[in-house]
Design a protein that fits this description.
Layout lengths: L20 H4 L1 H6 L8 E5 L8 E3 L1 H7 L3 E5 L3 E5 L19 E2 L6 E2 L5 E3 L18 E2 L1 E4 L2 E4 L9 H8 L8 E2 L5 E5 L3 H8 L5 H4 L1 H6 L6 E5 L2 E7 L20 E8 L3 E6 L2 E11 L2 E10 L13 H19 L15 H13 L4
Antiparallel strand pairs: 1-10, 2-3, 3-4, 4-8, 5-6, 6-7, 9-10, 11-18, 12-18, 13-14, 14-15, 15-16, 16-17, 17-18
This protein binds FE2/S2 (inorganic) cluster and fe (ii) ion (FE2).
Length: about 350
Amino acid sequence: MAMSETLIDADIRKARTLPSRFYTEPIEFERLKTVFNGWQFAAHTSELETHTMLPLPHIQDITGESVLLLRDQETRSLSNVCTHRGMRLALEPCAKKTLQCRYHGRTFNLDGTFRHMPEFEQAIEFPSDEDNLHQFPLKQWLGMYFTSQEEVPDLPWEMLEERLGFVSPTSFTHDAHRDRDHTIDANWLLYVDNYLEGFHIPYVHPELNQALDYSGYSTETFDGGVLQIGKAMEGDVKFDLPPGHPDEGQDIAAYYLWLFPNMMFNFYPWGLSVNVVIPVSHKQCRVLYRGYVSDAELAGQGAGSVLDTVEEQDQWVIEEVQKGMASNAYDRGRYSPTREQGVHHFHRNLSQLFVEE
Ligand code: FES
Ligand SMILES: [Fe+2]
């Protein structure tokens, strides 16, 4: 039986969770891969200030497509594959003015157009448009670039900007000390499921539970994502919300934004941490972390200060769930109507993409 819209009931009070085969079977893993063709986090704008060329190896790991950002007057997302015989072009970030292929020396301008190729004087109808690098869609939002494999519907960028724009991540800088790349023995869906609920915080994250007011934790779902809001404990670090902000008057420790299907943006008073989940196989994924900071001093306090510990605890629990999913005795569970709206929304999103004809 394939996935279909009716697989996950729209009413969370009746719905059953995603069947375990989606977490354990290679064929389901392959089938789900098309969900990654939409918007993907590419880089923070600060990463292009010192570079003109920024290859995006994580995009290739996710989608199979080798992509790079090139900064000319404007920044573009372009194919990182040489139009001659397919060599990958930029292998490292750099500040060069011309992109030269290391195989036979073809060069490209910073706008991705063909510039020069040795030994092609006698080639007929050369160069043509086909010798320029293919351009992919690129979007800039709150200081972050997103790229996609094809023209896809926009995410609700404006709505999110209203809520999160005040954090002004545009002015943040990349803090490479915060970068992580973890391999986890669990299906990528489990990483996302786990991110989408705070239900497990009191059980799995005792330290984080001290920093967050669990009773005030809230979850909002919207087309293309989920926003979870963690409330600060009395006297702990919280956001300075500008007057008129939709959450004015509340003590907010963190905004946890997930964008379908695999991107997480954690906004803290000190900055932003980004998690990108990379599907590896039906039983393995990788998670990349990037940190962007505004205030390094605040980073040691509040909900954002125990990140590595929290991460280890999350990885532990989802690796255990992966083992549980192999059970013949378990197939599906039920959702908490008050604490698992995010997980339900994600599973609904997935099932709606595979509506049966
Ligand atoms: S593959 Fe790039 S010049 Fe030949
Ligand atoms: Fe967690």
